[in-house]
Structure formats: structure tokens, C-alpha cells
User: Which sequence fits this backbone?
């Protein structure tokens, strides 16, 4: 794979030289069939074009799928441990390139360097984990009900897998999809979000440099209707993995069902953090700030609702708001900055819209609420960290996913009331509880309707070796990460070997 890299950025107002990236199909860089491109701009300074990418269409997707289909015939026969060794080598390559990739990511999506380093590290962790799975891919062996008969089940690859990824974790989430898929013997076509394609290219470059053969991984860039839809509808694509909004997820799930595609949906969240009277309040405040404003609130697992028991409600608010006011907002390449910009103008407009909705609903805004657009902020999509208090659980700002640095604080009477509030939404991704009472902790683990529950930690911080995903409108029952991903990217085949040298008719020939 070509090794074009972007010039390392500086923060002195100079504009780095940009590169034009082509699609990566069958091991080659190729231009889009339509000849059109689009710009990837820095949301902290929109004057900077990070890179230019292909605006792909159905013809490009068809070529990528054809390449993946042809590669599958050979790739599926490569022993899984050998496939996994390539993924392990990719982890080693990513370690060497971690800082450059983190800086690229900050430039294209805005979050601070500490977080983009973590994003790359998550891809490294996912590579190490999935490399280990290449020597497992376990299946059961069971005793047969008949004599002289062997019974087992084995995992087999599905075929061509299509992947559509979001912009908020552009390398980590791409790694969640690509790495287990290729270790299991599948081939892939991935369409990264149009806001952050560079980070996916950086991951794929590492995999290719590690020895993944041509055609096994293909990348087409562009917009959902023009490139994502043809990938979803292609009859040769046997599985679709999508991370994004619940509204789009409904369309993808419905379309996939028409051709019996495997379909994994990781969708929205409106995640609650419960703080009880006996909690370590300082710890809860630190967790709430990190969960609410990390990645500018642009996480499906963001702590967007904080449900606080009335005994510590006012004390929590006073300290939380005071700390929120001190958060330094700015260009994520500045190591002193704690929160970057919204990823684009549309997301900033959504954030501002929900702030007005909250005011209109009667919630009390105690800090934030304003766009930052003067001085160093004038060329970016910046917003103040925003806190609403005395929020009614039924208000829209407490029910709908905002995906920005806007948090609602809600009072509750006790744990039972808090859990009822937490569960009273359409989503069920992540949840957390701060308490020193182990009995209450285990009750919450049992009763919270979510795919993830943290005790004495915020709603963010998932690790790659456990399943990731949610309930209700957050997904369709599949999981990314850990064994959940292996389950999605494989088909079960049951195998029976009869060495009795005679016809045995299963349940009919059962000895009495």
C-alpha cells in the first residue's frame, strides 16, 4: 500500500500541505469512477484542508465488492493463526506510528490529543486481542447420542462484509469491525464517515504493511446515499456492520433483512449516571465531567444524564458546575486544551438547537449554552460545556440523543426512583452508579436496562475484550468487541462423523 502521509501539523496558523487520497481497491489506489472528490477539513480551524478524498459512487462500490469476493476464495483457506499473525504485526506497526496517527485524527475530527492517542491505542489493543482469537475460534465437541459417532461444531467465515463507520472513534471503531472479520476469514469493504476517512486509511495501511493480501480489505470513501447505500444493497455482501444513529440503523436493518444479510447495529444512547447519597462525591464529579464532556460529548456512551439523589443534589451541582466552567476549550493539538470542537457545523447547530429546546421546556441552564466564535475560535465549531439542572426526566433534552457537550442533571429520591428514571428512555447502551453500598451496586447491575453498567466509574471506558453494545433502540442484539464480534463474523457449521460403518438413523435407532 502507498505510504503517503500528511505533513505534521503546527499550531502557528500556517497551513500544512495537503494530500489527495484515492480509494483502496484490490491493493491499488484508484480514483472514483465519477472523478469527484471532497475535502476533509479541520473542525478547529476550517481553513485547513486535512486531505482530499474520493466521492465514491455505486461503480466504485461494485469494484470493491468484486475485489473482496475474489479475494475471499483464497483468504478463507489461510489458516486462522496465520491470518492472526498479520493482525499482530499490524499492532506493532501502529505502536510505531501512534503519535502521527493521533495528530492526524485530532486534525480531522477535533478531539484532544490525549483522546486520539487513546483511540489509536484502542486499535492496538483490538489487534492484540483478535490476534489471540486466531488460535482459538473455539467450537463445541459434544457426545453423540449414537455409538461410534463424533459430533462437533466449527466456525466458518461468512464472505464479503460491508462496514459503515462513524466519525467519533474513526480508528477504534474501524478496528472493532475489520480485525475480527479478517481473523475469522472474511474479506471487507469499509466506508468510513466522510468527516474522518484519514484515520481509517491509517489503520488499513498498517494492516496492509503487515501482510494482509490485496482485496482482503478495500476502502471506498464518500457519502452515505452515494456509497453507503450501494454497499448495503449489494447482493454479494453477506454481512453489514453499522455504527451510527438509530434512525439510519432502522433503514439498514430493514434493507438487510430483504436479502437475509447478517446485520450488526450499534446505535444511539442517552446514558445515565446515578449518584447516591453515600457516593464518593469528588470521584462522581470527576467521572461526570469526563463522561459528559470527553470527546465534546460526541460519544454514543456519553454521560448525558446525571441522576443525583436529593441528599447530595445541591452539593453535587455546585461543585460540578464550578468545575465545568473551568474546562479549557480549544484546538486539540494544544496539550493544555481539555475539550475540542464539534465535528462539523451541522453537529454544532444540533447542539445549539437542543440548548434552546431545554430552555423552552423550563430546564435551568446554569453554565454554557453559547457558541465560541471570537479570536482563536472564529474558524472552528466550538461550544461551551453546557449544564442544565432541575431537569424533568420526560423533557426532550433528557430523552433524545444530542451528541454534544450538553448534560442534564435530574434529582431522584432513592435508588429505585433513579433506576426508573434511567430506564425511562428508548435507548439502553451504557449506565453507571456511584455508591459505596455493594448491595445497591449489584441491584443496579441487575435492574438497569443497558448493555453496559459501570460501578463507581462514568458511562465511558469500554475495553476491547468484552462485548460492546446495547438494548432497546441502541441495537439489534449483536455486539462488537470480545467474543461478540467473533460470533457476528462467523457462521456455525455442525459436523457429524459416523464411524460405525452402518446406517444409523439418529433418534429412530435409539436403543431402549
Assistant:
Amino acid at each position: 500500500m502507498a505510504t503517503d502521509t500528511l505533513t505534521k501539523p503546527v499550531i502557528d496558523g500556517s497551513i500544512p500541505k495537503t494530500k489527495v487520497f484515492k480509494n483502496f481497491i484490490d491493493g491499488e489506489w484508484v480514483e472514483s469512477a465519477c472523478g469527484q472528490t471532497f475535502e476533509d477539513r479541520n473542525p478547529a480551524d476550517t481553513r485547513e484542508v486535512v486531505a482530499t478524498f474520493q466521492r465514491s459512487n455505486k461503480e466504485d462500490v461494485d469494484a470493491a465488492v468484486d475485489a473482496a469476493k475474489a479475494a475471499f476464495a483464497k483468504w478463507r483457506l489461510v489458516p486462522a493463526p496465520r491470518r492472526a499473525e498479520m493482525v499482530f504485526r499490524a499492532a506493532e506497526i501502529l505502536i510505531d506510528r501512534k503519535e502521527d496517527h493521533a495528530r492526524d485524527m485530532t486534525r480531522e475530527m477535533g478531539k484532544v490529543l490525549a483522546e486520539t492517542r487513546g483511540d489509536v491505542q484502542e486499535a492496538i489493543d483490538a489487534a492484540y486481542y483478535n490476534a489471540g482469537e486466531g488460535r482459538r475460534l473455539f467450537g463445541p465437541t459434544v457426545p453423540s447420542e449414537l455409538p461410534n459417532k463424533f459430533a462437533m461444531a466449527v466456525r466458518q467465515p461468512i464472505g464479503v462484509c460491508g462496514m459503515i463507520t462513524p466519525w467519533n472513534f474513526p480508528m477504534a471503531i474501524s478496528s472493532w469491525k475489520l480485525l475480527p472479520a479478517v481473523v475469522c476469514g472474511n474479506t471487507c469493504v469499509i466506508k468510513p464517515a466522510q468527516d474522518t476517512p484519514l484515520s481509517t486509511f491509517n489503520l488499513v495501511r498498517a494492516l496492509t504493511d503487515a501482510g494482509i493480501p490485496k482485496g482482503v480489505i478495500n476502502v471506498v470513501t464518500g457519502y452515505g446515499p452515494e456509497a453507503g447505500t450501494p454497499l448495503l444493497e449489494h447482493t454479494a455482501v453477506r454481512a453489514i456492520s453499522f455504527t451510527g444513529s438509530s434512525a439510519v440503523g432502522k433503514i439498514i436493518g430493514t434493507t438487510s433483512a430483504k436479502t437475509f444479510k447478517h446485520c450488526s447495529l450499534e446505535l444511539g444512547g442517552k446514558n445515565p449516571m446515578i449518584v447516591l447519597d453515600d457516593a464518593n462525591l469528588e470521584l462522581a464529579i470527576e467521572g461526570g465531567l469526563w463522561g459528559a464532556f470527553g470527546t465534546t460529548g460526541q460519544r454514543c456512551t456519553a454521560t448525558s444524564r446525571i441522576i443525583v439523589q436529593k441528599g447530595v443534589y445541591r452539593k453535587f451541582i455546585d461543585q460540578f458546575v464550578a468545575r465545568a466552567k473551568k474546562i479549557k476549550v480549544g484546538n486539540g493539538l494544544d496539550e493544555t486544551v481539555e475539550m475540542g470542537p464539534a465535528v462539523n457545523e451541522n453537529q454544532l447547530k444540533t447542539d445549539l438547537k437542543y440548548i434552546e429546546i431545554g430552555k423552552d421546556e423550563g430546564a435551568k441552564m446554569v453554565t454554557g449554552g453559547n457558541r465560541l466564535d471570537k479570536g482563536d475560535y472564529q474558524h472552528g465549531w466550538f461550544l461551551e460545556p453546557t449544564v442544565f439542572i432541575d431537569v424533568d426526566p420526560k423533557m426532550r433534552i433528557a430523552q433524545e440523543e444530542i451528541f454534544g457537550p450538553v448534560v442534564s442533571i435530574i434529582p431522584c429520591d432513592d435508588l429505585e426512583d433513579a433506576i426508573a428514571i434511567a430506564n425511562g428512555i428508548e435507548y439502553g447502551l451504557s449506565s453507571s452508579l456511584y455508591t459505596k453500598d455493594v448491595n445497591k451496586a449489584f441491584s443496579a447491575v441487575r435492574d438497569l436496562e443497558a448493555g453496559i453498567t459501570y460501578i463507581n466509574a462514568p458511562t465511558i471506558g469500554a475495553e476491547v475484550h468484552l462485548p460492546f453494545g446495547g438494548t432497546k433502540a441502541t441495537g439489534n442484539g449483536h455486539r462488537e468487541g470480545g467474543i461478540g464480534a467473533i460470533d457476528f463474523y462467523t457462521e456455525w457449521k455442525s459436523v457429524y462423523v459416523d464411524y460405525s460403518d452402518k446406517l444409523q438413523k439418529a433418534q429412530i435407532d435409539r436403543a431402549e
Notes: The chain has 13 helices and 24 strands. Residues 213 and 425 are 45 Å apart (CA to CA). The chain has two domains: 23-267+475-493, 271-455. Residues 80-109 form the longest helix (30 residues).
